[in-house]
Structures are given as C-alpha cells and as structure tokens.
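Memo to structure team: turn this sequence into structure tokens by end of day. - J.P.
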Amino acid sequence: MKLQRYILIEIIMMAVATAGLIWLTDSYLMSLGIVILLVVVEHVIVSKLEERQEKKEEEEDHETAD
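Reply from structure team:
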C-alpha cells in the first residue's frame, strides 16, 4: 500500500514537471529528453544508495559475527 502511494506521488510529480517543461520550452522533444535524463539520473542515484545500504548492512553483519 505504501509503495503504491509512493508510485502515485512520483507519477504526479513527473506529470507536473513534464507539463512545466513543455510550457517553458515549447518543444515536446526537448521536454521528453529532459524527462528521460531525470529518470536516468534518479535510477543511478537510487542504485548507488541501495549499494551503499547493502555494503553498510554487510559490514554490520561482519562486526556482530566477530
């Protein structure tokens, strides 16, 4: 349930950002390119944060095992 709410909020935010970009740039293609870049950057950031969290959990597991 919490994940669905997060996804819905993300979709609404992207729709607002896309509408704003279309209004600012007057170009659908430029707006599409910017939105794609934003999605890619978000994916990279989330991947790095997940890797960092996994590494931190592994270090904590090794410390408790000792």
